[in-house]
Amino acid sequence: MMASNIFWEFGGDFPWPQPLEISALMPPFGRGSYFRKGVFFGTGRAAMLGLLEHGRATRGWRRLWTPSYFCPRVMDTIEQAGWNCPRYVDTPLSGPAGLPTHLEPGDVVLRMNFFGWRGAEAISWAAHLDCDVIEDHSHDPSGPWAIGSRAAYCVASLRKTLPLPDGGWLWSPSAQELPIPGEATDLHLRAAGLKIAGMTLKQHYRAGVPFPQKVFRELLVRGEALLGTGSPGGMHPLASTMLQLLCPLALAERRRKNFTALFEHAPLLKQHSPVDGLPPGCTPFALVLVFESTTLRDRVRAALIEQRLYPSLIWSLPQSQNPQTVDFGNRSLTLPIHFQYSESDVAQAAHTLRTVLNGVEAGGKFHRLERNAVAPSGENRDFYKGELVQRGQTLV
Ligand SMILES: Cc1ncc(COP(=O)(O)O)c(C=O)c1O
Question: How much is the pTM?
Answer without folding.
Answer: 0.91
